[in-house]
Amino acid sequence: xxxxxxxxxxxxxxxxxxxxxxxxxxxxxxxxxxxxxxxxxxxxxxxxxxxxxxxxxxxxxxxxxxxxxxxxxxxxxxxxxxxxxxxxxxxxxxxxxxxxxxxxxxxxxxxxxxxxxxxxxxxxxxxxxxxxxxxxxxxxxxxxxxxxxxxx
Length: 152
Hints:
It is a single chain. The radius of gyration is 18 Å and the shape is globular. β8 and β9 form a beta hairpin. The protein is built from one helix and ten strands, in the order βββαβββββββ. The strands form two sheets. Strands 1-4-5-10-6-7-8-9 form an eight-stranded antiparallel β-sheet, with no helix packed on it. A two-stranded antiparallel sheet has the order 2-3. The chain has one domain (about 10-20, about 45-145): Umud Fragment, subunit A, CATH 2.10.109. The longest helix has 5 residues, at about 50-55. Helix content is about 5%, strand content about 40%.
């Protein structure tokens, strides 16, 4: 039996989007932000960005989950981030997924090759979780994005 790990990146609160949520396009500058020196010759045109259009392909099958833990830091998923999870995408090898293993909800990278199935953390302190006979695995959805709020 798989024992729950308090050090593993678990998922906490489930937020269900409203399919009838109003569109809220926000201004999107046409110029990318430089992480080095700014370009003096920046020609651009303003656009609008609607977060729903950007991250949600299928509203009926899209859910949000808050992350708790550190096991996915190598994939830039940190404690407190909110994941965008789409259930309509068929999970493939290499996808980051939300999965249930023996009833415990986890976020990990799916490894599926040569008859071997595992959920792999993106942190060196956490070994892969090999799915063996007798274990229950349900790959619930594929992570398609994340939100992060900075402390101000």
